[in-house]
Amino acid sequence: MAPTVPFFQQVNLNFDTAARYTDFPSGLLDQVKMCNTICHMAFPVKRDDGAIEVIHGWRAEHSHHKLPTKGGIRYSTLVDEDEVMALAALMTYKCALVDVPFGGAKGGVQIDIRKYSTDELERITRRYTYELVRKNFIGPGIDVPAPDYGTGEREMTWIADTYTTLNPGALDTLACVTGKPVEQSGIHGRRAATGRGVYFGIREACNVPEDMKTLGLEPGLDGKRVTVQGFGQVGYHAAKFLSEGGAVVVGLADIGGAIYNSNGLDVEEAFQYRGENGSLFNFPDATNLSKPAHVLELDCDILVPAALENQITRHNASRIKAKIIGEAANGPTTPEADDILKAQRVMVIPDVYLNSGGVTLSYFEWLKNLSHVRFGRLESRFDENMRRNLLKAVENVSGKRFPEEEQERLTHGATEEDLVDAALEDTMITAYHEIRTEARALGGEFHLRTAAFLIAINKVAQFYMQAGIFP
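User: That's the sequence. What structure does it adopt?
Assistant: Structure tokens below.
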């Protein structure tokens, strides 16, 4: 059933709940909350059969308190003005929460990608980019898109190439978009970043003994039963890393179907099976579920909604059996459902925090494109040589020689992926404990969403105040 409250209004309800704990002037809070700029474009595209079709697209820039603005572009039939404004607002709060110096933005094109050929999708993407350039809604210091639902590295490459073509001679054109392939000046680890951030965040929450005791769970991920709704880029990587971290993935769902096995599913085998068969249905040693949404109601310890918004509503929240919900998707839980879950004493790790791995790695890619230097290139070999010299000194003093494999492990210089992965882990750990501390002040582990919004509001509003815009 459709939600009773528009998505942007849902985000603002969470904003208002948190804003009550601040002392900022109402006018300043209105400025933080409102979407600064929204662009709706309609442009013609020629189909492969020669027919002309009008395509609708949007780009919303929610906050210009810091530039550039940042946010993904999604291709979906559900895209509309309300959705992109809501997602742009979440990007503002997400960036503030993890101290990434961007304002929030979001874009979308209203199409079903399954109904278009690769050539048609390329024409749509390039024309959408052209419209963004014409309206000054894209640029390394203006607005930097990224992948989202229905888009990926391929589309980001088309965007970068189109922007570069329209700006000949400009030095930093590749910084106009992130989420590019590594070969096209992307960054190692970006593809898995959001899912990896989800893993780091859930792992950190589960490592707090006091909170796990409140939920009736043992500390740590080991043995915890996990279900994941959505098996795209985010859902797959979240499931993969949670499984590798000791959790047992018992349920998986994608747009075509859902499966369950109380003893656990092999995430890699399921991913390969889905790729070969187009669906998870009839995966060996698993039970098919009649509807993908049924995975939300399975008996488990941790539920990870990693699909689209408004999946957990007042209609199904009371049937949720998980004790922890890790929101890997944007806005998967409505405010009404949030109240029900809080009453059921379910810990909800909010999207505005847990989904921030992608923008964190996008920030590093943007920096890499501006500096034109790969992370680790200047220091990796130097660090490795220094460690080898130190190891040799230890061997000379002790008279013992380390095995070759041990030498390699101890002297390994950090690669780009090592560096950004460590930075992502530190970001997620630091942000979680900041949110948890605020939540404890508000009343406990069931106030994480309000705490996250409160921290983000404080950071954005204080920036305005310190900049002298609101003396």
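DSSP finds 16 helices and twelve strands in the chain.
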